[in-house]
Backbone:
């Protein structure tokens, strides 16, 4: 597979960190450090900080993302935010199906599918997260789990939507926030099997053009090795995205 067909995406997932004032400050710190990036740079910030982050990043190469969106355009869904609302705000990206949403907020493969569909219909780009639990890896069902999650999420998604507006993030749940990174080989193996699934569902050409990130304790020290793998096209970064210098080093590793 030719890596030149894909532009890597380095996305920060700030999770529930940085209100508007802190978001503005961190975007201003990252701006000059990301200016020469040879990859797509995305910052997924808390909903209340979207406007501040959009304003602080205006006119730069930094794109802003939300961390979730609802599947309905509007309605009686207290506490939720629709994809259309994000679009209206000028937000280009949204994370869907993060394991913390699956683990703590009852997200299922069905709701991940519906949120993905809604985001695409609203014209957003989606960072679609998949990944196995530790127990699933230990029972050797990683491939089945990741194939199932990916297949269900992408049901009804066209090849064009997949290539142009979906970034798949493979995030082994046991590696998120634990300091336990998958080895470059382990990460690449699963990214490659996701690409193989896409070839089966769509075509070799679509698979070759689909951006597939790795996420899970990626940091400034291990990013180079991970991003050098043939099937890893960038990263979804939690902890290390909260510090401008560390995040910039990861952008640098993706820009070689
Ligand atoms: P981490 O988080 O980099 O802190 O492990 C990654 C993620 O949850 O996207």
Residues:
């Amino acid at each position: 597979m030719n890596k030149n067909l894909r532009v890597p995406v380095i996305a920060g997932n700030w999770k529930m960190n940085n209100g508007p004032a802190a978001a503005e400050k961190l975007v201003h710190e990252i701006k000059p450090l990301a200016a020469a990036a040879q990859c797509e740079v995305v910052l997924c910030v808390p909903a209340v900080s979207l406007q501040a982050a959009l304003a602080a990043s205006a006119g730069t190469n930094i794109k802003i993302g939300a961390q979730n969106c609802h599947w309905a355009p509007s309605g009686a869904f207290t506490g939720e935010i629709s994809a259309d609302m994000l679009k209206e705000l000028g937000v280009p990206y949204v994370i869907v199906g993060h394991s913390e949403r699956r683990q703590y907020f009852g997200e299922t493969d069905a709701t991940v599918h519906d949120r993905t569909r809604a985001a695409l219909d609203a014209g957003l780009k989606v960072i679609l997260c998949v990944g196995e639990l530790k127990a699933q890896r230990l029972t050797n069902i990683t491939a089945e789990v990741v194939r199932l999650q990916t297949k269900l999420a992408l049901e009804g998604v066209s090849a064009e939507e997949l290539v142009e507006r979906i970034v798949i993030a493979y995030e082994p749940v046991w590696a998120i926030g634990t300091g336990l990174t998958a080895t470059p080989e382990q990460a690449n193996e699963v990214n490659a099997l996701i690409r193989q699934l896409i070839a089966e569902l769509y075509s070799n050409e679509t698979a070759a053009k689909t951006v597939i990130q790795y996420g899970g304790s990626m940091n400034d020290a291990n990013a180079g090795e991970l991003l050098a793998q043939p099937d890893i096209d960038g990263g979804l970064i939690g902890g290390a995205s909260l510090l401008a210098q560390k995040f910039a080093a990861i952008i640098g590793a993706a820009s070689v």
The longest strand covers residues 125-130.
